[in-house]
Amino acid sequence: MTQFTVHPAQITTPEMRASALTDPGFGATFSDHMALVDWTAELGWHGHRIVGYGPFELDPASAVLHYAQEAFEGLKAYAHSDGSIWRFRAEVNADRFQRSCRRLGLPELPVEDFLASIDQLVTLERDWVPTGQEQSLYLRPFMFARSPILAVKPSTQVTYAVIASPSGAYFGGTGVQPVDIWFTRDYTRAAPGGTGFAKCGGNYAASMVAQLEAEAAGCSQVGFLDAVEHRFVEELGGMNLFVVTADDRVITPALTDTILEGVTRSAILKLAAASGLTIEERRITLDELFDGIDTGRFTEVFACGTAAIITPVGMLKDADGGHVVGDGSPGGTTLRLRQQLTDIQYGRVEDVHGWTTRIV
């Protein structure tokens, strides 16, 4: 395994860390260290190290600041009841990270280096892994271009980093609370041939103005339609979408180059199939979705992602009005799949799928 040289930083006192872990929120508190690796066209990957968490020094002309040449990932480390710490499907994240970097013209980090950066950082920061209900250590690997040149071309200098953030529920609150989704008719997230399948900042930046539109309509998340016909449901600003039917089918938009292949999404498909549900990965129009909800053919809708796990949807809205899913409360299939997934992640049941790996 690739070894990272550790340069110990001044660490947070146990009292301050305990206070931060009591109610960490999501993505607002960070551990004491971060992992770093450099890349240049001349030397390749080098300088594998773990250093104190802190600001980067960037030239004002760095390519990432002007042309958004960057990619990132998101995964979690989970504390089990015996005190051990495990990661969930990190190999899948490593593969997706390579695909994203390839699309952005960035060098591909070896899977071995990706996994080593996660494992060695978490081992050092094990005291930052929270143990509260549905809490975890959220890990954010990312890569950015730093060549100081304004010419529009791939960077020859790159930094890879991993930061760690003790986190609770993405949407806050306690228990499993439904969220409302706003479907925008004015904005699209990604177009065919673009970067929609890659996990990169530009995709999320493109969703921000639509997210503001959603919030103005009283919704927590925004949903996007395809960029060609403006009819087919694709994904949310940061999550994949699922529908449960009255006859025990689970429908989710088929993957295209405009939809991110979610790690949680693929796990849910396997869990749903193992539970006897019929899986349909296909195109679904917004009109079909609304009609199915209104007629009762579609009984549940939920969103999923690493940060939000599985989140029930209580209502879908667009400019013409709202459509309440069932009675607006979390559905039974949604809750069962969520329980099955989190039971595996937190080690409450045997992982028969081989998805989890012990770090420490």
UniProtKB/TrEMBL annotation:
Q: Give GO MF terms, alphabetically.
A: L-isoleucine-2-oxoglutarate transaminase activity; L-leucine-2-oxoglutarate transaminase activity; L-valine-2-oxoglutarate transaminase activity
Q: Which reaction(s) does the protein catalyse, per the Swiss-Prot or TrEMBL entry?
A: L-valine + 2-oxoglutarate = 3-methyl-2-oxobutanoate + L-glutamate; L-leucine + 2-oxoglutarate = 4-methyl-2-oxopentanoate + L-glutamate; L-isoleucine + 2-oxoglutarate = (S)-3-methyl-2-oxopentanoate + L-glutamate
Please state the Enzyme Commission number of this protein: 2.6.1.42
Its domain of life reads: Bacteria
Gene3D superfamilies recorded: 3.30.470.10, D-amino Acid Aminotransferase, subunit A, domain 2
Tell me which UniProt keywords the record has, alphabetically.
Answer: Amino-acid biosynthesis, Aminotransferase, Branched-chain amino acid biosynthesis, Pyridoxal phosphate, Transferase
What positions are modified (N6-(pyridoxal phosphate)lysine)?
199
Pathway per its UniProt entry is:
Amino-acid biosynthesis; L-isoleucine biosynthesis; L-isoleucine from 2-oxobutanoate: step 4/4; Amino-acid biosynthesis; L-leucine biosynthesis; L-leucine from 3-methyl-2-oxobutanoate: step 4/4; Amino-acid biosynthesis; L-valine biosynthesis; L-valine from pyruvate: step 4/4
Question: Thylakoid: is it a keyword of this entry?
Answer: no
The biological process GO terms on file are: isoleucine biosynthetic process; L-leucine biosynthetic process; L-valine biosynthetic process
Q: Which cofactor does it need?
A: pyridoxal 5'-phosphate
The entry sums up its family as follows: Belongs to the class-IV pyridoxal-phosphate-dependent aminotransferase family.
| Protein name, entry field | Branched-chain-amino-acid aminotransferase
